[in-house]
């Protein structure tokens, strides 16, 4: 247990039919709180950092936080760079110690995306790290990456060739999912997940997890979505928790930052625990 590779987390999840929360943190408080939720529920967890977070905090500081907070941790955890179209940032994070990256070449022609992801896989392997890949942009802008236009879905043959030729360890298809907050329950192409898993045996990453129903989560996880991304829910929880506490603080006229931090941390931890319970990963830590 402790810090492990991405495959050591997602392969057992796909085999045993549960999903692992992959939660985007934004600072030290959210990192510590998500880890606390995983420990409390005895669940593996994937900690994700966006390119925006890496650049705003700095890779050295982020990785130092990660090392300090995971020292002696008793559940499987890994550190993943989410949706990164910049090869220089991929290299920077791999060199610092991230052990999983998503090269986002979804805006490139498939052939160029494939050429580059093959290079990223080779680079990651040299660091003992794993790679998530995608060929279609997931609708919605997240941390300044993405588009509000849904890209054309590739055929099964094209997708399978991409997975098998590139050697990616996890694949993130577009199935009608989207980043951000859904205006209504989305209509998903669940069969596409089944077809990809049956053809490749590679675990699927479900993006746009915030706002899906429990029934959708359960079905997609059973089909092979072993990695389930959560980003918007953390941001909403974090900011609303701050807002609610500060409004109450203003009314009382008592200004105590540590009390604010404890309040927000408790809410973020509860959010993480809720997704662990929904995805079936509680108690899965060996």
TrEMBL record:
Query: Taxonomically, which superkingdom?
Result: Bacteria
Gene3D superfamilies, per database record: Aldolase class I
Alphabetized InterPro entries for the sequence: Aldolase_TIM, Class_II_FBP_aldolase, FBA_II
Its cofactor is: Zn(2+)
Against PANTHER family, the record matches this protein to:
D-TAGATOSE-1,6-BISPHOSPHATE ALDOLASE (PTHR30304), D-TAGATOSE-1,6-BISPHOSPHATE ALDOLASE SUBUNIT GATY-RELATED (PTHR30304:SF0)
Which protein are we looking at? Fructose-bisphosphate aldolase
- Any transmembrane segments, and where? none
Pfam families reported for this sequence: F_bP_aldolase
Q: Which organism is it from?
A: Asanoa iriomotensis
